[in-house]
Amino acid sequence: MAFVVRKLGSNITEAQVMQFTVKQVSPYKQIRRVAFIDSIPKSHSVKILRRELVDRALFANFSTSS
């Protein structure tokens, strides 16, 4: 899964992101889902908080499957 932060005025779609990665990575590394978010969560030491991204992905899964 990819988390993407759009630039102001951008209208990039999920299909465009997936098509771009097809050319960049091996088939087994290709993304299957894209989530557009406002900002990447970071700690005070500017490290990406991956656990928060995982929680967002899981919460989105549960909310759409109900």
TrEMBL record:
Gene3D superfamilies: 3.30.300.30
UniProt-listed Pfam families: AMP-binding_C (PF13193)
Record keywords, A-Z: Ligase
Signal peptide interval: none
Superkingdom to which the source organism belongs: Eukaryota
Domain spans labelled AMP-binding enzyme C-terminal: 1-47
GO MF annotation terms: CoA-ligase activity
Homology family: Belongs to the ATP-dependent AMP-binding enzyme family.
Name listed for the protein in its UniProt record: AMP-binding enzyme C-terminal domain-containing protein
Organism lineage string: Eukaryota, Viridiplantae, Streptophyta, Embryophyta, Tracheophyta
